């Protein structure tokens, strides 16, 4: 009896392991039989090429960015991540990536009349509750996908320009099993000259970040996608690469530099209910931004801060003193400085301003 129970348990275990393997594949493997009626003028062997479309397959771009501060170079590895649940294993296939978007349709949308009318209150709708199963499905559908990346050796990828898209023909044959999600094929690898720049927004973060400005001098259009970034061989973080067409210039983030410091402090805040002048309430703020360079070389840091922005004529923002003066102030009252720091040097930016508004009113800050 024990032997029978053991045999039953073994069969159940084998069935469970097979089910687990099928789940890992992510798709049920299927096969097709194709029957063709061929008519020829002469007998003999007839070569045939069968082309067909499959569902549940696609690709997304991803990137591996590697910067070298010593040489001033940045290498971008452009990958196509393939997912397919067609039920077939693709073995030794030629891979072509298209930038076209078939899901958007083939015709431009039509414009409808823009009707202006008085607003009518909408009827009350009954609350809609998701079942537990539907909630789980929604969460799974929106879950982010991890990207695994490793350096590869690039071969020449052919770029075919069509009327409305680009086609990248990958030189190496690819094998993509059924249910694969994240199979990577290297589209291209290219090295660009980069100009390093430092940026900080002390109001939001005490860190000074390094950035690289590059110009796309190649033929490839880098589509938006996730990226992993390395600098001087060290991993600095994951991010997102924006659309980057030929001849365009882009600034890439290379992470914080801990040998540079930025601290923003509120030195004084006075006024409010106690600061009444001729029916007006005055609220004064004084901030200081201290920058420090711990490096052995000089640097220039792009610093951003802001003044309050009023959209009401009864709320007036008046500047008492900004030292040093910013190099730029835009229409949103964003201030920008280019602060040069010698090795081991500290510098301070001082902002002194006040907000005036009618007595008895309250403002947001």
Key terms:
365 residues; mainly beta; 9-stranded mixed β-sheet
General description of the model:
With 365 residues, the chain is mainly beta. The chain has two helices and 19 strands. Strands 16-19-14-13-10-9-15-18-17 form a nine-stranded mixed sheet, with no helix packed on it. Strands 8-2-1-11-12 form a five-stranded mixed sheet, with no helix packed on it. A three-stranded antiparallel sheet has the order 4-6-5, with no helix packed on it. Strand 9 (195-200) and strand 10 form a beta hairpin. The radius of gyration is 31 Å and the shape is elongated.
Query: Helical region count?
Result: 2
H/E series: HEEEEHEEEEEEEEEEEEEEE
Categorize the overall geometry: elongated
Adjacency order of strands in the biggest sheet: 16-19-14-13-10-9-15-18-17
Structural class: mainly beta
- Mean pLDDT, nearest integer? 82
Gyration radius from CA atoms, angstroms: 31 Å
Low-confidence stretches: 128-153
What profile does the largest beta sheet have? 9 strands, mixed
Q: In oligomeric terms, what are we looking at?
A: single chain
Overall number of strands: 19
Approximate helicity band: under 10%
Beta-strand content estimate? over 45%
Spatial separation of the terminal alpha carbons:
79 Å
């Amino acid at each position: 009896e024990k032997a029978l129970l053991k045999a039953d348990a073994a069969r159940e275990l084998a069935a469970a392991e097979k089910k687990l393997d099928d789940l890992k594949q992510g798709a049920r493997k299927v096969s097709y039989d194709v029957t063709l009626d061929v008519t020829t003028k002469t007998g003999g062997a007839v070569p045939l090429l069968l082309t067909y479309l499959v569902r549940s397959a696609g690709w997304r771009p991803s990137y591996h960015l590697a910067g070298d501060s010593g040489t001033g170079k940045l290498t971008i590895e452009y990958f196509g991540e393939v997912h397919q649940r067609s039920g077939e294993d693709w073995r030794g296939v030629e891979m072509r990536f298209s930038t076209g978007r078939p899901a958007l349709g083939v015709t431009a949308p039509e414009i409808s009349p823009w009707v202006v009318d008085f607003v009518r209150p909408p009827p009350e709708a009954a609350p809609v509750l998701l079942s537990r199963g539907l909630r789980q499905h929604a969460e799974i559908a929106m879950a982010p996908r991890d990207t695994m990346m490793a350096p590869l050796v690039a071969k020449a990828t052919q770029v075919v320009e069509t009327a409305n898209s680009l086609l990248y023909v990958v030189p190496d044959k690819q094998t993509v099993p059924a249910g694969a999600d994240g199979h990577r094929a290297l589209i291209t690898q290219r090295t660009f000259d980069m100009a390093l720049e430092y940026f900080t927004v002390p109001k939001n973060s005490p860190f000074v970040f390094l950035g690289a400005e590059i110009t796309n001098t190649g033929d490839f259009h880098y589509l938006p996608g996730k990226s992993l970034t390395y600098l001087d061989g060290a991993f600095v973080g994951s991010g997102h690469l924006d659309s980057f067409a030929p001849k365009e210039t882009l600034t890439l983030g290379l992470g914080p530099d801990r040998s540079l410091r930025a601290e923003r402090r509120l030195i004084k805040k006075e006024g409010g209910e106690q600061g009444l002048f001729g029916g007006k309430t005055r609220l004064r703020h004084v901030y200081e931004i201290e920058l420090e360079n711990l490096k052995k070389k000089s640097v220039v840091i792009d610093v951003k801060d802001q003044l309050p922005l009023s959209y009401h004529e009864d709320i007036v923002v008046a500047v008492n003193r900004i030292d040093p003066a910013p190099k730029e102030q835009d229409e949103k009252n964003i201030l920008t400085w280019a602060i040069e720091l010698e090795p081991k040097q500290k510098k301070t930016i001082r902002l002194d301003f006040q907000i005036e508004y009618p007595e008895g009113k309250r403002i947001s800050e």
